[in-house]
Amino acid sequence: MMSNLNFYKLYTLLKVQYSNMLEYRVEIALWAISGIIPFFMLNIWTNNNLNELINISNVMLSRYFLSAFFVRQFSVVWVVFTFEEDALLGRVSPYLIQPLNPFFRYIAQHIAEQITRFPFALIIASFFFLFNPESRWMPNLIILFLSCIATFFSFLIQFLIQSIIACLCFWTEKASSIERLLFIPTLFLSGLLAPVISFPEYVKSWIYLTPFPYLIDFPANLLSGNETKIYAGFTMQVLWILILFPIFRKIWFEGTKKYTAMGS
Amino acid sequence: MSFKKYFLVYSNFLQTSLASELEYKTNIIIDLITAILSLVGSVFLLSIFFQNNNQIGGWKFEEALIIQGIYTILNGITNTWFNPNLTEIVKHIREGTLDFVLLKPIDSQFFISLKKIAPSGFLEIMLGFCLLLYCAIINEININLSFLIFCLITLTCSICVLYSLWFFISTTTIWFVKTWNATEVLRSFLYIGRFPLTSFSYSLRIFFSIFIPIAFITSIPSKVFLGNSSIWEIILEILVCGIFLISSRKFWFFALKFYTSASS
């Protein structure tokens, strides 16, 4: 009964947010375009034959970077910036009275945005195939399904991390600079700019214990058909979600107790 | 008289925005760490490219570091001046406060481009200069007066080109109203400026010399720094800088003709 009600609320929120997002189609298209850095990176890799050294063919590498582009598109999280604005302007107060955790609202926003983004990402991908016809491929349904789940888990991990940072707004007011700090290791270690397999040994020895390779590298390898450890990848993703979720619960609980509305 | 007035106005801008930014002292420390990590990350990425190669697109690792240094300086300048000011245009236009800017007895471009300052970018600029100094030592560049003058001229020109690009993109807001992320697209394209342009394929090289002139933003200043640039490149740089500055200013006044204030 309870979960049914929550599901209904989530569905309504999703519908509202989707129509909201459709209002700003151009904006979302621009967001999609700003994610094309992996393609530039691919150009450096193949143009200098760097991939020969890590034993990945040109075609496999271009599939990897295309998949990385897709995974990134559907795991972008910006909740900290929205929450910071809401907290600074005191909009959080009415949300807190509602019998629904405000983060449901944010999660609906993100998912609605991803749905809006989907056609633009497809258009960019079709352009990519136009210029690189030899890298065209179609993963089988199981792989497609598994990589969708892996991408969603990657989104969840990032969402939880950012929500934890966002909750720091209750104490510091400007939490987005912490997020910018944390974005740097995400950018360089997640595999968006270079596949993790190409990293030097001294990094590879510890990086698989951090959440970073599971954000882009693991789902992208899975989707593109490159070699990856499926069970280990999923286990680590779930493990990180299980670690982060209680922290978020705890910090949210402490934060709302600390929260004093605007002007008090 | 006029120059003195603008100088006075600018020193006032500087004081007020510094005072408001220094409210958030911990933010500045976090931004410093972010800047350092970001530099470490991009040097790490560069080292991956050079793992088994000793050159990329004709640039050795030590030489490619120069490009990183110049990029870091320019990025610092972007974060200090361009980003806080020019993203504000969007807000001015959406909320109709551009009226108040236009009514002031002062040049509107001057007001819009220099009103704010984000001091945390200074640290990045200093970091960039330190890296350049290090590069000068490891590349055994002998520093003399003419070298310094040429470097200063090209670097100034590249800053002007970068500024004009930002200003161009922000000006388009007058027609499109909500283009927060048009600058984000520009940022992701500029990301290429971290790497030698010659390491990209031929078609991308042309794109990045004409449409988004990264060649003039980081490549030519780096070559001048290395001392292997020809005189025509420097002349071309100055020429391009002039064209960009004048046309972006013309474009601003052209766009203002279409400004209709909010709710009209």
Brief synopsis:
Chain A has helices at residues 2-23, 25-33, 37-47, 58-73, 79-88, 92-97, 102-131, 141-167, 169-172, 176-189, 201-207, 217-224, 230-258. Chain A has 13 helices and no strands. The model of chain B has no long low-confidence stretch (mean pLDDT 88).
Total number of beta strands of chain A = 0
Coarse morphology of chain A: globular
Unreliable residue runs of chain A: none
The multimeric state of the shown protein is: heterodimer
What proportion of the residues of chain A is helical, as a percent range?
Answer: over 70%
Strand content of chain A: under 5%
Query: Number of domains in the coordinates of chain B?
Result: 1
Percentage beta strand of chain B: under 5%
Note the run of SSEs of chain B as H and E: HHHHHHHHHHHHH
Tally of individual helices of chain B: 13
SSE order of chain A, one letter for each helix or strand: HHHHHHHHHHHHH
The largest inter-chain interface, given as chain pair and residues per side, is: A-B, 33 and 38 residues
Low-confidence stretches of chain B: none
- Global outline of chain B: globular
Instruction: Give the integer mean of the pLDDT values of chain B.
Output: 88
Cα-atom Rg of chain B, whole angstroms?
20 Å
Structural description of this entry:
- The complex is a heterodimer of chains A (264) and B (264).
- Chain A is mainly α and 264 residues long.
- Helix content of chain A is 73%, strand content 0%.
- Chain A has helices at 2-23, 25-33, 37-47, 58-73, 79-88, 92-97, 102-131, 141-167, 169-172, 176-189, 201-207, 217-224, 230-258.
- Chain A is globular, with a radius of gyration of 20 Å.
- The two termini of chain A are 38 Å apart.
- The model of chain A has no long low-confidence stretch (mean pLDDT 88).
- Chain B is built from 13 helices and no strands.
- In chain B, helix 2 (25-49) runs parallel beside helix 7.
- In chain B, 38% of the residues are buried.
- Classes of the chains: A mainly alpha (264), B mainly alpha (264).
